[in-house]
Amino acid sequence: MKKIFLIIIILLIFGLVGVGIGKVYDNKNNWLSPKGSSWELFKTNDENKVETGDIKIEKNIGYLAQYNFENLRKRENKGSIIKDVGKVLVVEEARPTVIEKYKEEGILKENNFTSKAISFESNGKKISGMINLPADSPAVLAGRPAIIMIRGFAESEGYFVGSGSWKVADELARNGFVTISLDFLGFGLSDDESKDILEARFEKPVGVLDLIESVKKLKYVDPDRIGIWAHSNGGQIAVSVLEITGKNYPTVLWAPMTNPFPMSILETMDDSEGGLIVKKRIEDFEKEYDSELYSIYNYYNWIEAPILIHQGTSDVWCQVKWQENFKKQLEKYNKEVYLDIREGSDHNLKESWNEVIKMDIEFYKNKMKI
């Protein structure tokens, strides 16, 4: 067997020299560079292997390994210049309706902030979003707390800059917070996301990590007072970021997906053609990678931020028991976590929106010492 293996290696090496391309394909038709760690696929003296024909392949060293939490924790997150790319047209058209609703309810609020569509870079790709700036003088605005807004699942059709978070972002901005909503790759004015459905998922926390560093560079933001707000699938991204960074980013989660990966995907897939494609991709992924290295469940002890969770009992997407279990797990590590269960509220907490927003504002003010 050793002789056979040696012959295979020699043939591969001479084959590469003969054609002069310097690269080979792996078993999933991804380019592998002999200069990179993927060349280690041909090691056989490691315990963590899977069988592929006559060659044993080491797990967790393919191109998706860069996204496991252990490696992301070592990553150098890079901030870029946040660019003004125009108006948030759809949001601006929708705002008068919200203001009118406030007046009818006797709240009498006006917008005391300005909004812009923005973009920043992450891993060489452009990601768009929306920023809200409280309308104070530059002297007062300096050193403002900022909140990163992470939306949940969205369809690409009908998507607009700021989708999924703009109403909450507006309310936080009315109360003096700089808010930055990101669209993610493939949405808004952003560059395309990866064609690999799992890499497209794993790219999202990376985008948030680089956005945080970009926001810290803004002259009107206090880099020591950054918070996170997230909804639904965005909740799992937010928890991932808290674990990877280990930073004190006070975080509010609305109906978060706290069912860990890969069950967070598998349990929401049916047996339709699309669902079966996703299940097959995860099945293939787990042959090559250890999915636990990509799961929030294994890194709760890394979290160093207070978390407030809101969950409605009439939510058909996320379950109260998930949030109860999540809270229980965090408490095992003595983490600061609060769970607000809203009787009769749906996935968007529509039935208790005003009360929930007030709780969030007080939470951020308290944790950011405003």
Quick check: average pLDDT? 85
Net shape: globular
Counted up, domains total 2
In the CATH classification, which architecture of the largest domain applies? 3-Layer(aba) Sandwich
Uncertain residue ranges: 1-57
Going by CATH, what is the homologous superfamily of the largest domain? Alpha/Beta hydrolase fold, catalytic domain
Report the major sheet.
9 strands, mixed
Tell me what portion of residues adopts beta-strand conformation. 15-25%
Distance between the termini: 68 Å
CATH class of the largest domain: Alpha Beta
Encode the helix/strand succession as letters: HEEEEHEHEEHEHEHEHEHHEHEH
Task: Kindly provide the radius of gyration, computed on alpha-carbon positions and rounded to a whole number of angstroms.
Answer: 23 Å
The CATH topology of the largest domain, please? Answer: Rossmann fold
Q: How many E-type strands?
A: 13
The order of strands across the largest sheet is: 5-6-7-9-8-10-11-12-13
Query: SS-based structural class?
Result: alpha/beta
Specify the number of helices.
Answer: 11
Structure description:
It is a single chain. The chain folds into 2 domains: 2-58, no CATH class; 77-367, Alpha/Beta hydrolase fold, catalytic domain (Rossmann fold, 3-Layer(aba) Sandwich), CATH 3.40.50. It has a 9-stranded mixed beta sheet with strand order 5-6-7-9-8-10-11-12-13, with helices on both faces. A two-stranded antiparallel ribbon has the order 1-2. Helix 6 crosses helix 7 (233-245). It has 370 residues and is α/β, with parallel strands linked by helices. Strand 8, helix 5 and strand 9 (178-182) form a beta-alpha-beta unit. It has helices at 2-19, 69-74, 89-104, 138-141, 166-174, 197-216, 233-245, 263-266, 273-288, 320-332, 353-367; strands at 24-25, 31-32, 49-52, 55-58, 83-86, 113-122, 125-134, 144-150, 178-182, 221-231, 251-254, 307-312, 337-342. Helices cover 36% and strands 20% of the residues.
